[in-house]
Amino acid sequence: MRRTITGYSNPTVKYLRSLRDKKHRRREGKFLVEGLRLLTDALESGRVPEILVMAEKRDPHSLIDALERAVDAAGGEVIETSPDILSKITGKDNPQGVAGVFAEFDTSLAALDRNSAPIWLVAQALRDPGNLGTMLRTGDALGAGGLILIDDCADPFSVEAVRASMGAVFTQGVARASWEEFIAWLRQGEGQLVAASLRDAVPYRGAPFAAPCFVMVGNESQGLPEEYEAACDLRVTMPMRGRADSLNAAVAAAVLGYEVLASLEG
Amino acid sequence: MRRTITGYSNPTVKYLRSLRDKKHRRREGKFLVEGLRLLTDALESGRVPEILVMAEKRDPHSLIDALERAVDAAGGEVIETSPDILSKITGKDNPQGVAGVFAEFDTSLAALDRNSAPIWLVAQALRDPGNLGTMLRTGDALGAGGLILIDDCADPFSVEAVRASMGAVFTQGVARASWEEFIAWLRQGEGQLVAASLRDAVPYRGAPFAAPCFVMVGNESQGLPEEYEAACDLRVTMPMRGRADSLNAAVAAAVLGYEVLASLEG
């Protein structure tokens, strides 16, 4: 289906614009992805937008043509509109003139196969969508299975998180759960839960990591609750040579994750 | 000196507010720091604000008292104002009711002593102030000497960078230089320049790092120019098990920096 929208007050424009808001995303179960690169990443990962929005008079591009064909083939909707209306939808200049709407993925723990990857990242009450997206990107680089979001985290389907993930939101599994749900799920099978900690910990370098290894980081300002640290199978320390006693959450996950990767492959 | 400001249109309010803007910071050579934690970090690092701004009717706090005494002792200015005016200055709610103005530090390469630390971080055309601040924070944790900003980078004295640094802007050296200035300075003494690269590189794990080691990362979207990679003494690869061929710049600096630290100390 194909149509052209010319008015700012068109209900579809309002609908698309509303997807920048978490509450509306949740209610609709859809999210918005901006830019040709991310949409192409999605397509290469087998994800086709339900709605493709393109600016009129955009520069021709073979990747946009490929997106259009894929959306047509999947029975999706292609909308053409003015660059101004597209900017209104995405909230910024969109020089590539393209955005897409996707159905949110299943984010239940049950959808994860823990034995499909040696490493999983876990974030607890992570508030910054940029950190969340960066963790997805790091997970992709590590060959991790996905990111498990514990307690009240930023929205992995926000524009900021999707952008920071550099497309990894389409390749990494994402699950959302309470701590009780997560720990119950984890203990139903194999899995080593690891966190950086100052309590009863061993040096991270050369620590006895085991697959599937779940690398957990805590909230940006509070860190992990003591109870969560106590439930870990392995607590590790990382060198802190300066004034501070912690790293940025996404940085800590990456340094620890790369150590786990080297350990498991060494 | 102590005074109370009650009007939004007071020139000092306009001056303080203008420091949120890069152009004005550069011209004045001053920067704004918000919040009790960062100001206390600064004080512990021996940096006293030239101006301390406090909200009237704030909750009493011994750390605020300590700041006040330090500013008085250094001959600085203490300003009391309404919470609303303070919010206008800092551009957000400031529940701790305190902000400070500091003189920008010397950011010339000549101010750095390369032999004072085994690791230095180098960023080229880094555009995101959050990434920049995160690199400062990581540098503090690594015991690095500081961060060298090559070409046109985000401003290390922006509110966002200072906040993401978690106070490390006060403990890490910061230098700004063109590539030509940097490489000329580097080659005047000891120093190994290292970057992650896909060209003619060795695995990062177990690579022959040597102090003082300068770990360089490139622009968020472009990476390092080929010429800069070619000028490195050591090019290393990091595992990329997924779709993407790069990490977030601050993450890459941290993973590489922790490997250098382990190598030099091992």
Question: What's the layout of helices and strands?
Answer:
The structure is a homodimer of 266-residue chains.
Chain A: E1 2-5, H1 11-18, H2 22-28, E2 30-34, H3 36-44, E3 51-55, H4 62-73, E4 77-81, H5 83-90, E5 98-103, E6 119-124, H6 129-142, E7 146-150, H7 159-164, E8 173-177, H8 179-186, E9 192-196, E10 202-203, E11 213-217, H9 226-230, E12 234-237, H10 249-265
Parallel strand pairs in A: 1-4, 3-4, 6-7, 6-11, 7-8, 9-11, 9-12, 10-12
Antiparallel strand pairs in A: 2-5, 3-5
Describe the fold and architecture.
Chain A is an alpha/beta fold. Chain A has 2 domains: 2-103, 2-Layer Sandwich (60s Ribosomal Protein L30, Chain: A); 109-265, Alpha/beta knot. Chain A contains 10 helices and 12 strands. Chain A has helices spanning 11-18, 22-28, 36-44, 62-73, 83-90, 129-142, 159-164, 179-186, 226-230, 249-265, and strands at residues 2-5, 30-34, 51-55, 77-81, 98-103, 119-124, 146-150, 173-177, 192-196, 202-203, 213-217, 234-237. The first copy, chain A, has a 7-stranded parallel sheet with strand order 8-7-6-11-9-12-10, with helices on both faces. In chain A, strand 3, helix 4 (62-73) and strand 4 (77-81) form a beta-alpha-beta unit. The longest helix of chain A has 17 residues, at 249-265. Chain A is elongated. The model of chain A has no long low-confidence stretch (mean pLDDT 94).
Structural features:
homodimer, 266 residues, alpha/beta, 60s Ribosomal Protein L30, Chain: A, Alpha/beta knot, 2 domains, 5-stranded mixed beta sheet, 10 helices, elongated
